[in-house]
Amino acid sequence: MGTAGSGRLGDVKETTAGRPPLIPSQEPTMSYSSLSGRVAVVTGAASGMGAATAKLLAANGAAVALLSRREDRLKELAAEIGAAGGRALAVPADVTDQRSVDGAAERVAAELGRVDLLVAAAGVMLPNPVDDGRIDEWTRMIDTNVTGVLRVVRAFTGDLVATAAGGRTADLVAVSSIASHVSFPNYAVYSATKAALTHLATSLRSEFGPRDVRVSTVEPGLTDTELGAHIDNPSLGLDGQLGAMFDAIGPLSAEEIADVIGFTVSRPRHVNLRHLVVLPTRQA
Ligand SMILES: NC(=O)c1ccc[n+]([C@@H]2O[C@H](COP(=O)([O-])OP(=O)(O)OC[C@H]3O[C@@H](n4cnc5c(N)ncnc54)[C@H](OP(=O)(O)O)[C@@H]3O)[C@@H](O)[C@H]2O)c1
After folding, report:
1. Which residues lie across from 66 on neighbouring strands?
2. Would the pTM count as exceeding 0.85?
3. What residues are annotated to the active site?
4. Which residue in 10, 103, 170, 194 has the fewest CB atoms around it within 10 Å?
5. What are the backbone dihedrals phi and psi of residue 66, each rounded to the nearest 5 degrees, phi first?
6. pLDDT tens by residue, 261-277
7. Ligand 1: distance of its center to the CA of 126 in Å?
């Protein structure tokens, strides 16, 4: 899992039509020493931004619970983090299943202790025209991107509030999307789930902020991950509309989003970077 992306990024550097490449070859190298000793849960840790964030947090001294459904990926990442001198725990979990989330929370508590940092990155993006009536995809996106985040927030709220009450830094980071603000054909339901998530985080800030739990919303633009690989409509996927966006814009890397998250959660505890929109420079 050397790169968290889908492999499109390499192509884009060479094919961005008629203009010199904008994407540097090196990955972000910032370090955040204040993360040492923190206990983090990252959902969506099997790939993309979640995997990159877990690696960054662990490299900076946090113990990290890796949550998503693919146990093999999580074990591979935990081993990679361990080999690099970090601490990570693979916790297979499905955020659409309450019992699975409850079981994961119990395991994290038993093996890592109280959680003080939660990054909710698990998500699915399944575009199709609304006329197609894909209630299977609508349900899956709502269950994962909205209710799934709520399940995870509920599971770790007690830990976050107790951490903050004890005078230590406590963070909830919601990975939403620029799609919460812009409309894009065929992405109506995905965009609606992300708008709901952004607004949910805004509301949670009013509940948690007064108790010193920081809530940050990160809204990435086009980023090179596995997200587009689940699109079942060829005209919209990596060989169609989405691929054309990759070629025209050039995506961010998962590591660049992880770097923004790392910066956000390593500020002094009274400083809340509450809403970050992180786009490739060429994305309008
Ligand atoms: N890539 C972009 O351009 C972009 C832009 C804006 C926002 N985002 C958002 O960024 C977040 C991270 O996505 P990504 O781009 O890094 O894509 P990704 O590589 O596909 O990562 C999504 C992760 O979510 C996990 N996941 C999906 N359903 C789950 C479930 N039911 N329970 C637990 N985990 C689940 C997946 O692992 P398993 O399959 O193993 O469960 C996967 O590791 C998402 O919320 C996405 O909406 C992405």
Report:
1. 42, 90
2. yes
3. 190
4. 10
5. -100, 115
6. 999 999 999 999 999 99
7. 11
Please, which residues have CB within 8 angstroms of residue 97's CB and are 6 or more apart in sequence?
none
Going by pLDDT thresholds of 50, 70 and 90, the confidence category of residue 12 is very low
Question: Using one digit for the tens of pLDDT, what is the confidence trace for 201-228?
Answer: 999 999 999 999 999 999 999 999 999 9
Question: What are the residue ranges spanned by the domains of the chain?
Answer: 8-19+31-277
- Identify the sign of the CA torsion 173, 247, 225, 13: negative
**8-19+31-277 CATH:** 3.40.50.720
Mean pLDDT computed over every residue of the chain: 92
Is any ligand 1 atom within 6 A of the Cβ of residue 193? Answer: no
Give yes or no for residue 60 CB within 6 A of ligand 1.
no
Query: Is ligand 1 within 6 A of the CB of residue 280?
Result: no
Phi, psi dihedral angles at 175 (to 5 degrees): -90, 100
